[in-house]
Amino acid sequence: MSSPFVDSFGRHHDNLRISVTDRCNIRCFYCMPADNVEFMPKSHLLTFEEIVRFVKVVVQRGVKKIRLTGGEPLVRRDLHKLIEQIVAIEGIDDVGLTTNGILLADQAQNLYESGLRRINISLDALDPVKFKEVTRREGYEQVLAGIRAAQEVGFDPVKINAVSIRGLTEDQIVPFGNLARETGVEIRFIEFMPLDADATWQREKVLFASEILEKLSTEIGPLKPLPTQDPSAPATDFEFEDGRGRIGIIASVSQPFCGQCNRFRLTADGKIRNCLFSLEETDIKQLLRENADDQTILAAVEASIQAKKEGHEINTARFIQPDRPMYSIGG
After folding, report:
1. Is residue 229 in a domain?
2. pLDDT by residue (tens digit) across 171-221?
3. What digits encode the pLDDT tens for the residues 78-119?
4. What is the pLDDT of residue 92?
5. Total structural domains in the chain?
6. Which three-class secondary structure string do you get for the chain?
7. Cα separations in angstroms, 211 against 9, 166, 208, 224
């Protein structure tokens, strides 16, 4: 293996997030417009063969963790076949998937049999009315069925990602805490980030990590921090002191973890982004479709990672929200 991808701040990048589609079957307000979404033509999306080729190239430089995202990745036909190919690549030792869960009940078995073992399900409310308020679509019961199916086929742990928004989801914190205690799923609360399609994000709408932890501790029981197994992981993990229920906090706004970031991204249309909030992209699709050699592709990735900034600057006057909303970048 050649030397790893290292940026100018000494951060090693071994974690690649791949968006397989910008399409989605719900319309969460913090991610997508409610209507009239213009999706990419299918011909603009990377093929499975192109994705696998890219992974085989970057694994030469130490990439070992892959997470598939969207849009909603399960709307991409035969996704389990792509997973099977990625899992088989020598050097890849961790493949995960983030999904909204609506199609998961029907696909959980195939996904598990393909070699997938880690799954995150996005669900911001444990209430059908509030679910629809966030997603602007139906589907709450299908998500619950997807969670059950994931546990039944053997995914362990099943993690639920819940975006926390002031004035909207405060009353969901305790129900999610109880769900963790009753079912064994791990709940990960994520601070609301400025990646909404309508550009209406305000700092005042962020429900901060400290408030979430205080509410859980006060209304359910004391929490204790768990040892950090991966310093580059975005979540800080806790467990209720009685041993029942795990909670993760992703404090992207109030406690940025940019200094330990080891991630870069490949969008569904084949662009490399060195940060979720990056304002620049590198076109990899053109290189793949021109059948560029491995070294040319690696040089393009290297240049992108070398240009990575120290942090996302959300908490400064310098912050500029990317033109691409979350669904187009990849969650």
Report:
1. no
2. 999 999 999 999 999 999 999 876 666 667 688 888 999 999 999 999 999
3. 999 999 999 999 999 999 999 999 999 999 999 999 999 999
4. 98
5. 1
6. CCCCEECCCCCEECEEEEECCCCCCCCCCCCCCCCCCCCCCHHHCCCHHHHHHHHHHHHHHCCCEEEEECCCHHHCCCHHHHHHHHHCCCCCCEEEEEECCCCHHHHHHHHHHCCCCEEEEECCCCCHHHHHHHHCCCCHHHHHHHHHHHHHHCCCCEEEEEEEECCCCHHHHHHHHHHHHHHCCEEEEEECCCCCCCCCCCHHHECCHHHHHHHHHHHCCCEEECCCCCCCCCCEEEEECCCCCEEEEECCCCCCCHHHCCEEEECCCCEEECCCCCCCCEECHHHHHCCCCHHHHHHHHHHHHHCCCCCCCCCCCCCCCCCCCHHHHCC
7. 31, 10, 5, 15
148: in domain: yes
The structure tokens 């913090």 sit at: 30
Whether residue 302 lies inside any domain: the answer is: yes
Q: Is residue 86 part of a domain?
A: yes
Instruction: Give bridge partners of residue 318 from the DSSP assignment.
Output: none
Domain region containing 150: 5-159+259-329
| 282 Cβ contact partners less than 8 Å away, ≥ 6 residues apart | 271, 272, 300, 301, 303, 304
> What is the total residue count of the chain?
331
CATH number at residue 301: 3.20.20.70
Tokens 């011909």 correspond to: 43
CB neighbours of 106 closer than 8 A, spacing ≥ 6?
none
Mean pLDDT by 10 residues, the chain (331 residues): 89 97 93 86 96 98 97 97 98 97 98 97 97 96 98 96 93 98 96 71 86 97 91 90 96 84 96 90 98 98 95 70 78 70
Both ends of the chain: CA-CA distance in Å?
29
Q: Report whether 189 contacts 212 (CB < 8 A).
A: yes
